[in-house]
Amino acid sequence: MTTLRKRALIQLIGLSAVSLAALTACGKKDEAPAAPAAAPAAQAPAADKLKIGFMYVSPIGDGGWTFQHELARKAIQEKFGDKIETSMVESVPESADAERVMRDMAGQGNKLIFATSFGYQEFVQKVAADLKNVKFEHATGYKTADNVAIYDSKTFEGAYLAGIVAGGMTKTKTVGVVASVPIPEVVRNINSFVLGAQSVDPAIKAKVVWVNEWFAPPKESEAATSLINGGVDVMYQNTNSPAVLKTAEERGVRAFGKDGDMSAFAPKAHLGSAVINWTPYYTKVVEDTLAGKWQGGSYWWGVKEGAMDLVKIADDVPQEIKDKVEKAKAGLKDGSFSVWTGPIKDNAGKEVLSAGKVADEPFLKAINFYVSGIEGSVPGAR
Q1: E-strand stretches of the chain
Q2: Which residue of 67, 125, 246, 361 lies most exposed, with the fewest beta carbons within 10 A?
Q3: What is the dihedral angle through the alpha carbons of 291, 71, 215, 367, rounded to the nearest 10 degrees?
Q4: What is the pLDDT of residues 204-225, one digit of tens each?
Q5: For the chain, which domains are there?
């Protein structure tokens, strides 16, 4: 078949198809037109994610306080998946910068903001008063509002457990603490550490050096060196970096990790780490917020709630000391033991808790004295 004939045949077929379609249409002219196809059912708009902001006072790599908050942030992001969206800003000073960061977080749509350091308190209160539709969670503070809750971990329980180990390991019978900022939280931890050590040996004495910052590795190292030069052979800290532990390793003495597991920073010096686990509390807050049940108030969780523990106790710690730690843990969990049970005296000889009396929360949150055996006085205390 020639090309010309092929083209003619194709044209003929096309014309026939057109004619057939026209005849068919004419034959159906009296029928009602077909109803248009139904549009797909409209999808219900997906619920907006709960946006959550975290504000940190030190770098997430501090190995302690901020690192533990960051671990908890990641844990809730994984747990709640696409129901939430979290973000963080690290190394925010306890200054007007904190107010700026929180306002910026709110402007980006965050409806739940965690401010994770004591010094943010006044800025939280100021911003919360202006942004009533945002919920704020302030760590370690004492001021609440309709849209502000306060929360903390009973770090003094971890300090006491570390103190038991220190009491069993010191050879000089002199332990030391590198302290950050002289607020009741820190003073309570210093005292609890010493009470733990004295539960093993009542003759133990303690020295304290203040650096007046939460995260200042060079100052922390200098303070640790000063304590070692003063005869301290076991150290605790209430600062955010592993500098104290690293200095202990360099000088051949022992120390503890604080807030996070710091064992990897100085494995020879490390006696244990008093670790905070923020995940249980953060999980509760997110669940409540998603369910529309968030409420303010004050929350203080410890060993009982799985928010505090002493981990990675060194192998060379005597078994009887490890057993004493476990017994104290068990008592804290079931409520049969309290760290602050009288008789307890301050370092001036005054009885602050009578025999058998257990300190209540107002007492614990207002401590501004050193217990017996600690040298010096609390800065600023009357």
Answers
A1: 50-55, 84-89, 112-115, 135-139, 148-153, 174-179, 205-210, 234-237, 254-259, 270-276, 297-301, 308-311, 344-345, 351-353
A2: 361
A3: 50
A4: 999 999 999 999 999 999 999 9
A5: 50-153+279-305 (3.40.50.2300), 155-275+307-364 (3.40.50.2300)
